[in-house]
Amino acid sequence: MYIVILAGGSGTRFWPLSRKKTPKQLMSVFGGKSMLQRTLERVLPLKPKRVLIVTNAMQAEETTRQLEYVKGVPVDIIAEPVARNTAPAIGLAASIIAYHDPDGVMAVLPADHYISEEDGFCRVITQGRNAAINGYLVTLGITPTRPETGYGYIEADNAFRQHGPFPVKRFVEKPNREKALEFLTAGNFFWNSGMFIWKACTILDGISRYMPPLAVSLSKLVFSESVWELRDLKPQIEAIYGEIGGESIDFGVMEKADNVQVIPADFGWSDVGSWSAIPEVADADDLGHVAINAKEVISVDAGDCLVYGDNRLVALVGVKDLIVVNTPDALLVCPKERAQDVKKVVEELERRGLTEYL
Q1: Which domains does the chain have, with CATH numbers?
Q2: What is the distance between the alpha carbons of residues 143 and 182, in angstroms, rounded to a whole number?
Q3: What is the mean pLDDT of each run of 10 residues along the chain (358 residues)?
Q4: Per-residue model confidence (pLDDT) at position 227
Q5: Is residue 257 helix, strand or coil?
Q6: What is the SS3 assignment for 66?
Q7: Beta bridge partners of 50
């Protein structure tokens, strides 16, 4: 099996910790290792043949530095010159794998997700590998625990099977709360995790059928005779990315294909999409505070706050449900309920030309 890790995101909702050169996946959001490092280490028990990291040119140097310590499995860094969403990144990785191993099974994983039950994760990936060998496009669907309106959903056809993988009936965009409640009650809807398993040739066939312009561009790649010498591809990748548009693999292929299966997954998953998601996956103290990288937290008539302290003492007085993030050059304070609006700060910084804070 090959592992493809998509690591080119910007993580604007995690400002000021996340910046363009060091976005969320390259940061130690929980303390200790970065989310990218945790993602890579999570797949090592699967004994992959290779790991391909698709990132962008701005983040490639730091990505390479963070993964230099990995031994026992080859790790290739593929730098995209510009962001083009997930379909081109996946198509590029699949083309590289297929040149060497057309029937090679590849698991595609985001670099910035949290998973608490790593043994369970590996079991589900192995289950997906077996379905992928048989020619299916496999996606992992997270068993919903609440009527979440921030995720897309996958409707499974589970009428004739007790256990997955199940055929996919449809993909559903982020619903309103009423619809989300319906999905939760129905029992055959799952959160779209953005994790996939398929053979390289299978996804390339899907791209050829449903995204022919992208397939034509990818077909222009000319590979070196040297095995896995990817540096030679840089000018070719730049040329291809100059002519293709951006599209997600969900919209481009998965929503159109008829050979899609979903495996229900329940391994303590979170996409950690914003600061407000941290309390879901980190332990709180007796007052409900979650503190990360804080030397000490002093709380006076305060509760249920998230603090990222940059190794400083943080004092909270008479406040509740706040996010407080301290970094060497910027400080964020906002209510938890407004966590999604942190990206607006980034937009305002860009508008004002304050690039040193981006």
Answers
A1: 2-270 (3.90.550.10), 275-357 (no CATH)
A2: 14
A3: 93 88 85 91 97 95 95 95 95 96 97 94 96 97 92 92 89 94 95 97 98 97 83 92 95 97 95 88 93 94 95 96 96 94 95 95
A4: 67
A5: coil
A6: helix
A7: 2
Contact 146, 185 (CB under 8 A): no
- Please name the residues in contact with 184: beta carbons below 8 A apart, sequence gap of 6 or more: 144, 146, 147
pLDDT for 312 equals 94
Cβ-based neighbour number of residue 233 at 10 Å: 19
Does the N-terminal peptide bond of residue 165 adopt cis geometry, omega within 30 degrees of 0?
yes
Q: How many helices (H) and strands (E) does the chain have?
A: 11, 15
Quote the distance between the C-alpha of residue 124 and its chain's center. Answer: 17
Six-digit token string for 108: 């595609």
Specify which residues 227 forms β-bridges with: none
Q: Give the end-to-end CA distance of the chain in Å, rounded to a whole number.
A: 37
Which secondary-structure segment (H or E) carries 313?
strand 306-317
pLDDT value at residue 166: 96
pLDDT score of 274: 87
Query: Encoding tokens for residue 37?
Result: 């490092």
In the block, residue with structure tokens 């979903």: 262
